[in-house]
Design brief:
The chain folds into three domains: 2-20 and 149-232, 3-Layer(bba) Sandwich (Glucose Oxidase, domain 1); 36-142, Enzyme I, Chain A, domain 2 (Orthogonal Bundle); 265-535, Phosphoenolpyruvate-binding domains (TIM Barrel). Helices cover 46% and strands 15% of the residues. The chain has helices at residues 36-65, 67-81, 83-96, 100-116, 121-124, 126-142, 162-167, 186-193, 230-253, 278-283, 296-299, 307-320, 357-362, 364-377, 393-412, 429-433, 435-438, 449-457, 475-490, 508-514, 526-535; strands at residues 2-5, 7-10, 13-20, 153-157, 173-178, 198-200, 214-218, 223-226, 267-272, 288-293, 325-329, 383-387, 421-426, 444-447, 494-497, 518-521. α20 links the parallel β15 (494-497) and β16 (518-521). α3 (83-96) crosses α4 (100-116) and α4 packs antiparallel against α6 (126-142).
Length: 539
Amino acid sequence: MLTFTGKGAAGGIVIGRISVYKKGAKAVKRYHVTDIEKEVSRFACCRAKAEKELEGLYEQALKEIGKSNAAIFEIHKMMLDDEDYKESIENIIRSEEVNCEYAVSVTADNFAQMFLAMDDEYMKARAADVRDISERIISILQNNSTDNTHMKGIVLADDLTPSETLQMDKDKVSAFVTVGGSLNSHTAILARTMNIPAIIGCKMDSMEELDGKEAIADGFSGNLIVEPDEDALVFARQKIMEETEKRNLLESLKGKESITADGKKIKVYANIGGLSDLGSVLENDAGGIGLFRSEFLYLEKNSFPTEEEQFSVYRRVVQTMGGKEVIIRTLDIGADKKIDYFGLAEEENPALGYRAIRICLDRKDIFKTQLRAIYRASSYGKVGIMFPMITSVDEVRKVKKISEEVKRELKAQNLPFEDVELGIMIETPAAAVISDDLAKEVDFFSIGTNDLTQYVLAADRQNPKLDNMFEEYHPAIFRLIEHVVKNAHENGIWAGICGELGGDTTLTERFIKMGVDELSVSPPNILPIRKIISECTVG
């Protein structure tokens, strides 16, 4: 038994035989040409043919994986039309008097290296896209297309382009495993959309010797187990059975609104901490994203993320959700989330200290950079912005004033954006008590039960000595939730819960009867909660 470990790019587990994918030979030789203009014309002709092929792939993708994911091939068309890309190829042909296959290959390498050198993970993943369009042109030039419709079982490859992934027979292929690739690649996204387990970055010395061998591909753990023993097979079969039951439940709910037995609609959204969570969000058919913890962008870096870096991530999330709502919580650091480059001083009681919205209002440059990125992403889908650690009406008005400044600046720069819903986290007792006044200032409330509980009970949730005092089901918490929901509705806005209590299935019916409009939970909790909602009545 051999185990190769990569990263799970699309959830699911399968048992099958490995089929090694060998791409058609595209060895490119450099040779001198005498008729330069003929070679340039040859490139233009093949580029036009590649464009037609991409149009066909777009139409196929539109039917199979929907508009938002089919956009991958529109992006490829845009790259194909990029003036820098075309000029590079033509300049190499003319200046070096060489064949266009060679010019395309050199340009592909140069552009791919340029993308890979970027700090932003989304942009790094574009290296695979420029290689994809270049390989397409070279294949046309060489009249050497690859037929991959025969691939079946667990497809193992060095890497896969989006077009190669899409063109494989989904009825034959049970999983994708690649030695290269990234979680942000279009291929990884396609695998998640098609509900095919996928593992990327699965390092191994040689693939050929694994061809035809039985294996377990686990898209959850990122493990490829070749020639598994009986214990591994038993474990895999159990997981497959559990996943089948879950999938059957999903199929009965997929595409439907979450509605109680007596007709009340409830939004069931997902909490996420980064791009890697999107696969699980889609797999569990979340109605939207109710809490995007944006601080991961700051925690993962050694310096402040730029507007472009943030915009790239927010746009990616919004586009992936295909029109479903994405609520982004602004920077929430301090307390248990420390970042060295912020230069925050040590505090006696950081949970009650300089954190979240207090930092943002004090350091407007950081705050406005984030807001600009979020507003720009709003032109790609439905976006909401949520502000944490609010304690007063004055804070909300300051936040709204800064938001208006950002919108004016973007408009002056002709940068597109949409008006978005503005909401606040209700996670301090002060916010809960004056929720009637706060509701007049915003579009929605999201109750953060984790912090609310620790502040109401004066029990630090990070202190293990107080575990017995951190009583999640304390009656004071439920009274405050009910009070907040009532004030929200009386002022014409909606109220949700995004803390841990929201994912507690023993409380789902109770929250629905309180009038809670939205529950935002970790992706695995979505289906069980939707099932309970469908069976309960508001009463």
